[in-house]
Amino acid sequence: MSNRDITVEELANTEYKYGFVSDVEEEKIPKGLDENVVRLISEKKHEPGWMLEWRLKAYRHWITMKEPHWSNVKYSPIDYQDIIYYAAPKKKPKLNDLNEADPDLLQAFEKLGIPLAEQKRLAGVAVDAVFDSVSVATTFKEKLSELGIVFCSISEAIQNYPDLVRKYLGSVVPYTDNFFASLNSAVFSDGSFAFVPKGVRCPMELSTYFRINASETGQFERTLIVAEEGAYVSYLEGCTAPIRDTNQLHAAVVELVALDNAEIKYSTVQNWYPGDKNGKGGIYNFVTKRGACRGVNSKISWTQVETGSAITWKYPSCLLIGDNSVGEFYSVAMTNNLQQADTGTKMIHMGKNTKSTIISKGISAGRSNNSYRGQVKIARKAENARNYSQCDSLLIGDKCGAHTFPYLETNNPTAQVEHEATTSKIGADQIFYLNQRGISTEDAVRLIVNGYCKEVFKQLPMEFAVEATRLLSMSLEGSVG
Amino acid sequence: MLEIKNLHASVEGKEILKGIDLTVNIGEVHAIMGPNGSGKSTLANILAGKPEYSVTEGEVMYEGKDLLAMKPEIRAREGVFLAFQYPVELPGVNNTTFLRTALNESRKYHSQPEVGAGAFLSLLKKKMHLVEMPDTLLSRSVNEGFSGGEKKRNEILQMAVLEPRLAILDETDSGLDIDALRIVANGVNKLKSRDNATIVVTHYQRLLNYIVPDYVHVLYDGRIVKSGGKDLALELEERGYEWVKQEEIAK
Ligand SMILES: Nc1ncnc2c1ncn2[C@@H]1O[C@H](COP(=O)(O)OP(=O)(O)OP(=O)(O)O)[C@@H](O)[C@H]1O
Ligand SMILES: [Mg+2]
Q: Which value does ipTM take for this structure?
């Protein structure tokens, strides 16, 4: 390490590493949204009639709705007619035969560090990659299918497993749920589908990488994961996007269903392009994620590390319906420069002896704004429900903001609810102490921040935890003088 | 090794050090004593590079280099170590990770290979023995929830791991029980060699029975007003600072 002073400016100018644009030939439809566009998307995907009907119902509902503005984020109005709703790489590779894939596309994935080919590094992780709107490849398919596990793109699932999709799609997040979920239901282009049958423990992590490549394109992916009785699955999601100086919309929906004694672990490392240091460009990330613990003793656990996006609006939630079911939410949300995040969770306790844990760690640097918004609701019949929430905010510098909005509704007197919140700053004395031991200021901040996030990171699978630590360091660059 | 010349320093516009001259040679132990608020910690902090102090006059040479021009982490890697009067808590930062990071930063700086996790643990075990520190403190966050005495011991453990060339101990003895005082002092003594030097800031002559100084200096109102051998500490213990103050006023 050199003696040279690295200025804040220099560090803030460190490029977003994933900002490249891939030169893949793409097929796009014209900008704008109406019923014909919805039909066109459905047609391009050769969807059955019921799917189109569902999309149209969603669209017709969506046009009656207004964009919500209750969150603590500010942005200029989105022109929904100025967005391209479908873009796909032209040469669509045949699944299971990567050699036929567009070499530029494969190169793009390589740059992202995605082991599309069965690379040793991530051996044992099945990957589905969604590039702009279309799912490109799913690895390890055969191995999984021997166990009766389905892991493929949602488009394929609609073709090949229509009964499963019809049964569960929209069953957790109905198309009427909220503005962005309705929009997604109408125009979703692809996403992942995972189904783990009764009694099966999925032997590997399932993973999807989402990538927005084309400009002026929205990405509306739809993910559906079902774990039948006694099944277990751990699912990872990673996302990146190129640098663009216009804002791009990302409105995804994720639905999880856990039946009796089933467990789903869902981990996200979100690193969409956050915009530059003046707040130009970046992804608007408006996501609806919800899991239903339908069965007794079922468990759903959300872990998220959010470092990207210009705006994050996201509340992974659990509906604790089955008795003794468990919901968990572990979150690190980091904002820097002019990023805004309004994120948190909802834990809706309906069954008896249901338990939920919320650990939220917000980190704000630069001039960013970071809000935690969480709801814990104990229904009348939820005897002995328990919740523990801990919401910590860490401030770096004095131009950023941290806000906490906990909502609590208890309708059963046996409920036990605990909420703890702290706000701390990285103190000059802490930095000096570490400096005095030979550790640079940047590394000092990293040590403190990693320590602060430890509880969440330890929930992540090993590979992802390393990635998360690295991402956080990258996002922190330039945040201290 | 260390040469302080006419050092003036202030904080928030208030002058605290009013012309310090001090030379520390390799292999020596210097004790600095003086009443509360006389500027002992300020001097220690300035040597370590704490940002809020501004040096208004004078210079500090360390091994022939301009110490004040170096960033605090560079001073540390060059071998300047400060055992803090009030060690800082670092919630969530694992004590072992912290120590290994610190050691490796220094090693990298001196183009030495980094120490791996396994090798570091065995090294740490030895050093722990030196300050008789319980293992349980290692898996905890740095200083978080440590008792006053444990914090001080942790400072000496860090010193043992980093093996500084110039160690500045700022009231490391305060808050230690009688046994701990002996243990910590023994630790410091074992770390002492012909290749390093130590500055001990203390209020109590008792510590100097264990860590025997070559020189004792009395800091009063931002100046070193009296220097002498180890007997000066005994004299101070007997006569108090009033004596020094009166002499100052008389001047
Ligand atoms: N950061 C600061 N801001 C304002 N005043 C300060 C600061 N640091 C030190 N001082 C003042 O400078 C003077 C010297 O303080 P210093 O801590 O160096 O004394 P000391 O000799 O170490 O005393 P003690 O024996 O009590 O530890 C005191 O009057 C103190 O209040
Ligand atoms: Mg002091």
A: 0.96
